[in-house]
Design brief:
Elements: H1 17-26, H2 38-48, E1 50-51, E2 65-76, E3 82-96, E4 99-112, E5 115-129, E6 135-146, E7 151-167, E8 171-186, E9 201-217, E10 222-232, E11 240-253, E12 256-267, E13 277-287
Parallel strand pairs: 1-13
Antiparallel strand pairs: 2-3, 3-4, 4-5, 5-6, 6-7, 7-8, 8-9, 9-10, 10-11, 11-12, 12-13
C-alpha cells in the first residue's frame, strides 16, 4: 500500500498507512472507510491480523480433555507506536464420569501512540451433567469487562437445560434455555435510555436462548460453525442483547485449520454517545489438541 493513501471522506491522523488502518479498526464506529478502499482493509486484516480463533468444543464428546489456545499480536515502534495483543483459550475437562466442565477465556488489548483503545476480558464457564443425553442440565458463570463500552465488570450466574437436536460424528446442533442473574457496573451514569441515568450499576434477571452447531462438509474439507443467543431481561423489556457468531474453517493439518469468523453483537443499553451494535470480520487459524 503506497504512502499517498488519503481517504477523501474522513480526515485521518498523520500516521503511516499501516497505523492509519489500525486506527480505523480500533475506532470503526467513528470513521467510515470509502467503499473503494474496503478491499485494502480486508487485505490488511489477512496480512496483519492472523487471529487465532478457537473452534467450538462439543461437551458431549467422549474425550476427557480438549483444549484450544491462541496468542497473536502486532507491534510497531518509531514515529508511531502500535501494540495489539489478543489471547483466547478454551478447555473442556471431564472430572467425573457424568460431569463436564468447560471454560472459555479471552483477553484483548490495543493501544495507539500509548493511548489505550481496548482492554477487554471475558470468561465463560459451564458445568454440564450427563451431556451424552438428549436433554441435560447445566450451570453457568460469566465474568467480563469492556473498556470501550465503559463496563468495569459484569457477572452472570444461572442454570438451565441443553437439548441436542442433532448429534453425529460429522455434525451437531443444540438448543439451550437458561436463566441468569446479572450484575453490571459502569464507569459512567448517563445512558442512551434516560430511564437509567444516574445508575452506575444495573441488576436484572434474564433468560437466554442459545443456538449452536458445527458441520463437517465435503469429506471434512469445510467446517461451518455458529453460536448465537438472545438475552432479554425478565424485568424490563427495553433491556436486552443478542449476538451471532459465524465461522468457516478449512483444515490444513489434523491440529490446524484456517478460519474466517464473523461476529455481530447488539446491546440495547449503552452509555451515552456509544453505538449499540458492533461487527467484526477476522481471518486466522485454529490450533487444537484433538
Amino acid at each position: 500500500m503506497s504512502s499517498d493513501f488519503k481517504p477523501k471522506r474522513q480526515q485521518l491522523p498523520k500516521h503511516s498507512p499501516i497505523s492509519r488502518f489500525l486506527f480505523v479498526c480500533a475506532h470503526s464506529q467513528e470513521i467510515i472507510i470509502p467503499k473503494k478502499n474496503i478491499s485494502i482493509k480486508f487485505l490488511f486484516f489477512f496480512l496483519l491480523f492472523p487471529l487465532l480463533l478457537s473452534a467450538q468444543i462439543n461437551e458431549s464428546d467422549t474425550l476427557k480433555v480438549k483444549a484450544n489456545l491462541s496468542l497473536t499480536g502486532f507491534w510497531q515502534a518509531g514515529n508511531v507506536e502500535t501494540q495489539i495483543f489478543r489471547a483466547k483459550s478454551e478447555v473442556s475437562y471431564k472430572p467425573f464420569k457424568k460431569w463436564v466442565f468447560k471454560t472459555t477465556n479471552s483477553y484483548v488489548y490495543q493501544a495507539f501512540d500509548n493511548k489505550k483503545a481496548d482492554e477487554d476480558i471475558l470468561s465463560l464457564n459451564f458445568i454440564y451433567f450427563n451431556p451424552e443425553r438428549r436433554i441435560y442440565p447445566l450451570v453457568l458463570g460469566f465474568v467480563s469487562t469492556n473498556f470501550r463500552r465503559e463496563i468495569s465488570s459484569r457477572q452472570l450466574m444461572g442454570a438451565g437445560f441443553n437439548f441436542q437436536v442433532l448429534q453425529h460424528k460429522n455434525y451437531w446442533l443444540k438448543l439451550a434455555l437458561t436463566s441468569e442473574h446479572e450484575h453490571t457496573s459502569f464507569n459512567k451514569t448517563r445512558f442512551n435510555l434516560t430511564a437509567y441515568n444516574g445508575q452506575q450499576t444495573i441488576n436484572t434477571f434474564r433468560t437466554t436462548l442459545w443456538v449452536s452447531g458445527k458441520y463437517h462438509l465435503l469429506k471434512n474439507k469445510i467446517v461451518l460453525s455458529h453460536e448465537s443467543y438472545i438475552q432479554p431481561s425478565l424485568e424490563d423489556g427495553d433491556n436486552y442483547r443478542w449476538q451471532a457468531d459465524l465461522g468457516m474453517e478449512l483444515p490444513i493439518w489434523k491440529f490446524l485449520n484456517f478460519k474466517i469468523n464473523y461476529v455481530h453483537t447488539f446491546e440495547s443499553i449503552v452509555v451515552e454517545d456509544q453505538k449499540q451494535e458492533d461487527q467484526m470480520l477476522t481471518f486466522g487459524f485454529t490450533l487444537k489438541s484433538y
